[in-house]
Amino acid sequence: MRTTEISIMRVYVTEGEGKLKEILDLLHDNETVRGVTVFRGIAGFGPTGEVHISSLSDLSLDLPLVIELFDEPGKMLRVMKILSTMVKPGHILSWSGKMNVDGIE
Predict the structure, then answer these.
(1) Which of 3.30.70.120, 3.10.120.10, 3.40.50.720, 3.40.50.300 is the CATH number of 3-94?
(2) Which whole-number Å values give the CA distances from 87 to 18, 56, 73, 91, in the listed order?
(3) C-alpha closest to that of 24 among 43, 41, 37
(4) Residue 90 burial class via C-beta count within 10 angstroms: exposed 0-12, middle 13-18, buried 19 and up
(5) Which residue, among 44, 41, 23, has the nearest Cα to 33 in the 3D structure?
(6) Which of the two ends of the chain, N or C, has the fewest CB atoms closer than 10 A to its terminal CB?
């Protein structure tokens, strides 16, 4: 099995911040990142301790979002520098990984 080195990143925002479209436009149109997935949390809290939770009676529009992306390390370093100007400090995590580059046999 052949693999290649990648960097993986998670960006934590909330729906209420209104940054999702701006970030996705950057990742898709400007940086053409290899892969991006957005996860919408059903509950969460941050440094303020205020709990945001989804329920049928209270459809919160300020739930947590996790934007996960991956690409080659050089591109991800460039993307991290840009994203760090768009989101609060401490809301970006990254780590190294390996991606299988062989097809299905």
Answers:
(1) 3.30.70.120
(2) 11, 29, 20, 7
(3) 37
(4) exposed
(5) 23
(6) C
Give the CA-trace dihedral at 19, 71, 8, 80, to 10 degrees.
Answer: -50
Residue boundaries of the structural domains of the chain:
3-94
* Mean pLDDT for the stretch of residues 19-24: 96
Q: What does the pLDDT read at residue 42?
A: 83
Q: What is the pTM of this model?
A: 0.87
Which two structure tokens, joined as six digits, stand for 7? 């960097």
The answer to whether the Cα torsion of 80, 83, 87, 88 is positive or negative is positive
> 56 falls in which pLDDT band (50, 70, 90)?
low
- For tokens 């209104």, the residue is 18
Q: From CA 14, how far away is CA 29, in angstroms rounded?
A: 22
Q: What's the rounded Cα separation, in Å, for the pair 23 and 31? A: 10
